[in-house]
Amino acid sequence: GQEFQFGPCRVEGIVLQELWEAFWDMKDVVQAQDNITNVRLLRKEVLQNVSEAESCYLIHSLLKFYLNTIFKNYREKAVKFRILRSFSTLANNFVVIMSKLQPSQENEMFPISENARRRFLLFQREFKQLDREVALTKAFGEMDILLTWMETFYQ
Amino acid sequence: DGVAVLPAPQNISVQSTNMKHVLTWSPVMVPEEIVYYSVEYQGEYESLYMSHIWIPSNWCSPTTGLECDITDDITATVPYNLRVRATLGSQTSAWSTLKHPFNRNSTTLIPPGMEVTKDGFHLVIKLEDLGPQFEFFVAYWRREPGAKEHVKVVRPGGIPMHLETMEPGATYCVKARTFVKAIGRYSAFSQAECVKVQGESLPL
């Protein structure tokens, strides 16, 4: 079967199609709330040319941020926009992925993990420069960018 | 004031076979009245970060039945809390919550149904259509001493699939099992089914 292979980190048991279908169900509602079209949080500098070795560190940081910050603070909106089903599918599958990611903590990997951290900080800094609610809405709407990037590691 | 007057539904349980999950409960008996039931769920994320939020089931909020197909609600391989309550007019019961959270990786996988046929000298199999979550491992061999077993992965089911071009007079056997990617588990193999090809078997 297919699985995620983020460099050394292997993640089984995720049906990517389920995540896509959940996002497509809510895409119009969510992205319609985002009026700032000239800003992109998951910019090219964050996701482009990520090495295999870096990918485990980066996906770990991104999903942790999405679960602990974005999903956690978007839930009232999810109730209001009646997208709890999609919200739940994505959040719970991200929980599964997170539980299976074990990025190496060895010293020799420090330069690689540092690269990944710099990419993540680019994203986080962009997030913090926006108004809180605007940033949450934009980040939630950019999950298609995140899923597209994740798909490149689905084999 | 219509709060929790009805008894709550009892004997809540989940039956799950081949990734089809059904929640069942015992009826709340009110003579000559129709009682409605509502089902709600929450995944691991909700119970960790937003435990007050429950999500109405896709098909059963409300229903008059005593069971609910929650397959479309369970969309991740994590523990899910499930609850049911009864409603009659303005009266509602307390919620009854499933004692142990349900995880789809506990589903019972049974061997797939299959039809093994001959199309001339072609060995053809048609597997039961179990939905997009399923892949099939098909093993087939020529029934003779020391025969080698071949394996093919088939996805999805429900479509006739050519396995082998057979030798006249020979007998070929086939068995199959399923693999569910979302939970990383296999079913047992089905019983083998064999077919014999007309004609004289060729000298070896």
From TrEMBL, chain A:
The keyword GTP-binding does not apply. The chain holds residues 28 to 182 of 183 of the full protein. Its main location: secreted. The keyword Protein biosynthesis does not apply. This is Interleukin family protein. GO terms for cellular component: extracellular space. It comes from Sus scrofa (Pig). Keywords: Cytokine, Secreted, Signal. GO terms for biological process: immune response. Belongs to the IL-10 family. Immune regulatory cytokine. One of its GO terms (molecular function) is cytokine activity. It is found in: Secreted. Transmembrane segments: none annotated.
